[in-house]
Amino acid sequence: MKYLLYILKRLVSLIPVLLGISFIVFFLIRLIPGDPAATLLGSHATPQAISELRSQMGLDKPLLSQYVTFLGHLLQGNLGYSYVYSSSVMDLVTISLPVTIWLLVSGTVFTLLIAVPLAVLAAARRNGIADNIIRAVPVVGLGLPAFWLGIMLILIFGLKLGWFPVAGYGASLADHLRGMVLPGVTIALTLSPILIRSLRASMIDVLSSDYIVTANSKGISTARVVLGHALRNAAVSSVTVLGVNLAYLTGSTLVVERVFSLPGIGQQMINSILGRDFPTVQGITLVFAIMVVVVNLLTDVTHAALDPRVKLA
């Protein structure tokens, strides 16, 4: 019951956050150079045609009046209408959002597959050869930009070896899974160094605890002590680290989506900005904000579930 109340409180607190984001985004996007009406009509459009289209789009009204109209539609669940794509923004988000969610899930899975074994091995072999090598990985990984890693993976595993598709999302479930391998690994290679450092430090701290020493003295196998006792307790702080960085990554997936030509909301955002598609940019930004809040909420609840000392308020 306490978890449900906590979730409800966080959802209520989301309302002023979204209002603030909508206000900031609405006015900042108007600072982008260019006229949406002129962009839609092209360079040969007459001033009269541009003026008429601006009137149809409501761009001839004062900014505050436009924001009030936008906010009224937003409260009704209407994110607006895209004149560039001739479709409602909600329909565009509904089509592209699953791709981004697939990407985030794929990146998280590959991050855990890479980071957890390496961090456990480094902590269990502290100051050994394996530990020294694994500790060098984060230093290198943190300095590599995601777009460069993505391009390298495309060249090696896509073009040279031909193991995975280099672009697109596919049509079937099997195509989705294969198409998300390289983008997911790209995200994992940028995220796992941070998690390795955090989890390794937590593991070392836990392995020196009294109850771990007691478990070793009772003759419990090293694997059971490390995996059954130390890892669970060390994972508490690392869950927060993973959640914070995943929330940050949610808003930066557009780079990976651009490299691999994935039709996610990040790619949609870029195309909308280039096309001066104000309603779509506003709607997608709000969706990104909701995703970040949801990820943070799931992180807090998971943290509390793993650590009974945490009190939800």
Features:
two-stranded antiparallel ribbon, 1% strand, elongated, 313 residues, MetI-like fold, single chain, mainly alpha, 2 strands
Strand content: under 5%
Question: What is the CA-atom radius of gyration, in angstroms?
Answer: 24 Å
Overall strand count = 2
**Global geometry:** elongated
Low-pLDDT segments, ≥5 res: none
Number of helices: 14
Instruction: Write down the overall mean pLDDT.
Output: 76
Helix-strand makeup class: mainly alpha
CATH classification, class level of the largest domain? Mainly Alpha
Largest sheet: 2 strands, antiparallel
- Please provide the ordered H/E string of secondary-structure elements: HHHHEEHHHHHHHHHH
Number of domains: 2
> Any guess at the CATH architecture of the largest domain?
Orthogonal Bundle
Helix amount:
over 70%
CATH topology of the largest domain: MetI-like fold
The named CATH superfamily of the largest domain: MetI-like
Strand order of the largest sheet: 1-2
Q: What gap, in angstroms, lies between the N and C termini?
A: 12 Å
